TrEMBL record:
Its EC number is 3.2.1.52. It comes from Streptomyces glaucosporus. The lineage of its organism: Bacteria, Bacillati, Actinomycetota, Actinomycetes, Kitasatosporales. The keyword Hydrolase applies. It is an enzyme of class 3 (hydrolase). This is beta-N-acetylhexosaminidase. The keyword Amino-acid biosynthesis does not apply. Residues 1-25 form the signal peptide. Residues 175-490 form the Glycoside hydrolase family 20 catalytic domain.
Length: 527
């Protein structure tokens, strides 16, 4: 017995010492060990921080006050309680009774806070989060979460204190669209895996989940009017595994889970290329009437819907209608990339009709930036995935009103290897280390694009080599928070040295969340 005690004690001390108390960086002065985390030490960096006054401490008598009469705001309060109760061990009851103490979520505030902004004010009496919308409250809650010690992420009771530094954070996003894309076509991911990723994205104020639902290797969503798309087209994946597809109820569950985290789902049906799974499911979609075999390799650009065939547009109309019905959000992504088997004129013809069909079903078109080679519909959004930063066609479309989502492959692609040792991923756009993915400005990235044409940023995760949840996390972390910061924080907050220190402090949080991340040598991890 006696001999065991010392090692256990040492282990506990080491464990406690490894928990972040502030933001000690390898190359910066460490704040006092017991001090609360400074208000600016969160990701994305807040737009404005005014530190001052004594901290707030969450304790056994803390209540969470939510506004009466807003079910949405109350749900944000419940979400916060669900985060804090297991690790703090405090009851944290929700109440609509007004009062000056506790954690106070309040609706209202200056117009400048907009649709998603919030103001967090901490003093010894309370932490108040104010916003004009429940989404703003939700983002404020993510800031509060990051201001607490990393061990708040543990699902069992941890030692306090649970302090929030005194002062005020006033925060609004730079861009309205802050996305992450998951390719569920090359490899299929279960509803639970997608929900877990949504939970992780929410921590960084990502507000859009783009699901790449169809590709050559798999069709992943049930379409009632064309059932074989899912049952046959979804029956395998890269490498020949069993694949799978979402029933409509599965998909609704993903949309619901995302909405509860103030995230909109953008479904993508990739057309006219990347359609082998559909062509394999229905011979009548092929120009020669012959269905090709299912495909489990990773080549791109070899398939195309048959542009002259009228059946093609019946198919597009049915699919878009059924997908639009499942989609509360405004956008429907129609792909349009790498249609190497579709002639230029056919491509323009197809895109013109496909865009019209999307509009008829009440949605706004998003397409990969190749759609700027056709005539983009009014209000269309193009997603740039090039590597050159020069793309005259894209710039011209932007000057003519097409809005852009930026996902430059050599910066934002989460499927690129970090370096030559990365066991997963591709490298056609080069290696993308943490600094490379963070250190660029979406507002000035493509020559000749007016800054206000940029709707936002997105980090796509293609899954040719990504087979399970651990793989998703290893490729997304630590790059995803950098793209999230580019989407949220003002350009004036951009600073690699400061960012990498803040990023380092996320490591212990990820460990407690069970996230297996790449320990990039560019980041001064604290343990
Ligand atoms: C290009 S980017 C693709 C995908 C691949 C990806 C792999 C784009 C619109 N198309 O089909 O999965 O590269 O990095």
């Amino acid at each position: 017995m006696r001999r065991l005690r010392l090692p256990i004690l040492l282990l506990c001390t080491a464990l406690l010492a490894s928990l972040p108390q502030g933001t000690a960086a390898a190359d910066g002065p460490a704040p006092p060990a017991a001090g609360p985390r400074p208000l600016d030490q969160v990701i994305p960096a807040p737009a404005s921080v005014r530190p001052g006054g004594d901290p707030y401490t969450i304790g056994g008598r803390t209540v969470i006050r939510v506004p009466a009469g807003s079910a949405e705001a109350r749900r944000v309060g419940s979400y916060l309680a669900g985060l804090l109760r297991p690790s703090t061990g405090h009851p944290l009851p929700l109440t609509t009774r007004p009062g000056a103490d506790g954690i106070r979520l309040r609706l209202g505030g200056p117009e400048e806070l907009g649709e998603e902004g919030y103001r967090l004010h901490a003093s010894p009496r309370s932490v108040e989060i104010r916003a004009r919308t429940a989404s703003g409250l939700f983002h404020g809650v993510q800031t509060l979460r990051q201001l607490l010690p990393a061990r708040v992420e543990a699902r069992r009771k941890q030692p306090g204190p649970w302090r929030v530094a005194g002062g005020t954070v006033t925060d609004v996003p730079r861009y309205a669209y802050r996305g992450a894309m998951l390719d569920v076509a090359r490899h299929f991911f279960t509803v639970e895996q997608v929900k877990r990723y949504i939970d992780q994205l929410a921590l960084y104020k990502i507000n859009t989940l783009h699901l790449h639902l169809t590709d050559d290797q798999g069709w992943r969503i049930a379409i009632d009017s064309w059932p074989r798309l899912a049952t046959h087209g979804g029956s395998t994946e890269v490498g020949g595994g069993p694949g799978g597809h979402y029933t409509k109820d599965d998909y609704r569950e993903i949309v619901r889970h995302a909405a509860a985290r103030h995230m909109t789902v953008v479904p993508e049906i990739d057309m006219p290329g990347h359609t082998n799974a559909a062509l394999a499911s229905y011979p009548e979609l092929n120009c020669d009437g012959v269905a090709p075999p299912l495909y489990t390799g990773i080549e791109v650009g070899f398939s195309s819907l048959c542009v002259p065939l009228e059946t093609t547009y019946d198919f597009v109309d049915d699919v878009v209608r059924e997908i639009a019905e499942l989609t509360p959000g405004p956008y429907l992504h129609i792909g349009g990339d790498e249609a190497h088997r579709t002639g230029e004129e056919d491509y323009a013809r197809f895109m013109e009709r496909a865009q019209r069909i999307v509009a008829e079903h009440g949605k706004t078109v998003v397409g990969w930036h190749q759609i700027t080679g056709a005539e983009p519909a009014e209000g269309a959004i193009a997603q740039y995935w090039g590597t050159a930063g020069r793309e005259e066609g894209v710039a011209e479309a932007a000057r003519n009103g097409t809005r852009l989502i930026l996902s430059p492959a050599d910066r934002a692609y989460l499927d690129m290897k970090y370096d030559e040792t990365t066991p997963l991923g591709l490298s056609w756009a080069g290696h993308v280390e943490v600094r490379q993915s963070y250190d660029w400005d979406p507002g000035a990235h493509i020559e000749g694009v007016p800054g206000d044409a940029v709707l936002g940023v997105e980090a796509p995760l293609w899954t040719e080599t990504v087979e399970n949840g651990d793989h998703i996390e290893f490729m997304a972390f630590p790059r995803l928070p950098g793209i999230a910061e580019l989407g949220w924080s003002p350009a004036s907050a951009h600073d690699w040295e400061d960012y990498r220190t803040r990023l380092a402090a996320q490591g212990p949080r990820w460990e407690l969340m069970g996230i297996d991340y790449w320990r990039s040598p560019q980041v001064p991890w604290t343990d």
